[in-house]
Amino acid sequence: MSQRRWDAVDKYFTDTLVAPDAVLDAALEASKAAGLPEIAVAPNQGKLLHLIARLQGAKRILEIGTLGGYSAIWLGRALPSDGKLTTLEYDPKHADVARANIARAGLSDKVEVITGRAIDTLPTLTGPFDFFFIDADKMSNAEYFRWAVKLSRRGSLIIVDNVVRDGEVANAASTDASVIGSRKVIEAMAAEPRVSATGLQTVGFKGYDGWAVALVVSD
Ligand code: SAH
Ligand code: DHB
Ligand code: MG
Q1: Domain parsing of the chain, residue ranges
Q2: Is residue 65 in contact with ligand 1, taking CB distance under 6 Å?
Q3: How far is the CA of 133 from the CAs of 64, 144, 161, 199, in angstroms?
Q4: Is the C-alpha dihedral spanning 140, 143, 146, 152 positive or negative?
Q5: By CB atoms within 10 Å of each CB, which of 27, 78, 114, 167 scores lowest?
Q6: Stated pTM of the model
Q7: What residues flank ligand 2, with Cβ below 6 Å?
Q8: Distance 163 CA to ligand 3 centre (A)
Q9: CA-45 nearest atom, ligand 1
Q10: Tens of pLDDT along the chain (219 residues)?
């Protein structure tokens, strides 16, 4: 199986099931024009995040790792009229591009981009949040997961992106900081009695990667 086939299937699903969207396209174009890395979630992944947030009835969402706001727009659109998404971004340039993209999406009232290192801005937040999307520096994933649990309630959902890393997550001998970060968050989920969790491998536009998903099952 090759990246070419994964791309073809992602293209088929996206062309068929994800409606063309000028605002999301513009967000990706503006991000690229500003020189941001092209590492936003794929369209079909963005839509899955959106559907899960709707399914859950999420009213307060916390994202860690904004980039140009692509996933934030998908998640922001899942919110009810009185919902709110807070998204944390280290790089002021990424945050500026994201704010412009979020404004173009008509979501400025619902979405707040907070600039700074997440580890410094997380302590300023008040929970509970219903839904978390953790997608920033991978080394810190276990710490971000612990913060998410702290800012959660029973029924909150925590999704961590990019934990599979071409399968390296199963390599206990890896010296790659991001792989070590992935293993640490999986182990933190296993050790946390307040959550019930699983992991999922995915292929597609984003290569071979996957999510860890944890449901907070007690207060
Ligand atoms: N969620 C986005 C992609 C995020 S890419 C999407 O799918 O559209 C990861 C982002 O995390 C980058 O913009 C990077 O600058 C940011 N980041 C890296 N380290 C961080 C930190 N310590 N605190 C907050 N954000 C960080
Ligand atoms: C990278 C980061 C991501 O969040 C992602 O989804 C893909 C790649 C990266 O840092 O390379
Ligand atoms: Mg990611």
Answers
A1: 3-216
A2: yes
A3: 6, 10, 7, 14
A4: negative
A5: 167
A6: 0.98
A7: 39, 135, 161-162, 206
A8: 9
A9: 7
A10: 699 999 999 999 999 999 999 999 999 999 999 999 999 999 999 999 999 999 999 999 999 999 999 999 999 999 999 999 999 999 999 999 999 999 999 999 999 999 999 999 999 999 999 999 999 999 999 999 999 999 999 999 999 999 999 999 999 999 999 999 999 999 999 999 999 999 999 999 999 999 999 999 998
Q: What would the DSSP string read from start to end of the chain?
A: --HHHHHHHHHHHHHHHS---HHHHHHHHHHHHTT--S-SPPHHHHHHHHHHHHHHT-SEEEEE--TTSHHHHHHHTTS-TT-EEEEEES-HHHHHHHHHHHHHTT-TTTEEEEES-HHHHGGG-----SEEEE-S-GGGHHHHHHHHHHT--TT-EEEE-S-SGGGGGG-TT---HHHHHHHHHHHHHHH-TTEEEEEEEEEETTEEEEEEEEEE---
- In the chain, the amino acid numbered 59 is K
